[in-house]
Amino acid sequence: MNSRVQTLLTVPRRCVLLILTCVAACPWWAMANEPSANPTAMNFEAAGTIRMNLNVGDMQIVGAQGDKITVSWHSSRPEDESRVSVKVQRSGKNDATVVVDGPGNRVKYRVEVPRQSNVAIRMQAGNLDVRGVLGSVDADLLAGNMDLRVADPRHYRTVSASVTAGDITAQPWHADTSGLWRSFKATGNGDYELRARLLAGQLTIRSE
Hints:
Layout: E1 6-8, H1 13-25, E2 40-43, E3 49-64, E4 68-75, H2 78-81, E5 85-92, E6 95-101, E7 107-114, E8 118-131, E9 137-150, E10 156-170, E11 175-187, E12 192-207
Parallel strand pairs: 3-6, 3-7, 3-8, 8-9, 9-12, 10-12
Antiparallel strand pairs: 1-11, 2-4, 4-7, 5-6, 10-11
């Protein structure tokens, strides 16, 4: 694929300080303390858009066969599992929302979505692993490690990734950069879009 790849500085220092202040002072969302069924599932056809609000933990987002969204979780401490709150609901004919909150990074989550889906992820902290999704991916993580396993690079129209402090490795596009306020962009002839943003940590993009 003939792609144009750029590595550049992007985020002003005062914006970083403002973001960190807001994160320390305000939670992203509040959820009821009622325990959720494990797993929590909802029928949802392929080719839709799924928006996820995820708190902290070890999150695995997996494209799977079938027309269903399923969220499951486990922890080394059984008492943690009963403190997890999950909401999966439709927000339109072809749109769904997944909201996950839990007691901390001891909990490991697995979110299965139809393989052909577009996903938009907003996560606070921890490990975010996305694989098996044939569609556009838009992922935000404040702090931690983001690992995106993507389809053939020729399937993507636009690609952009940025870290405020940390490392970016994107083997399919031969990008490797580290430090402060780093990013890269690429263009191609595919149908999908890939956007990944990380405030602090390691961002890795690799082929399936």
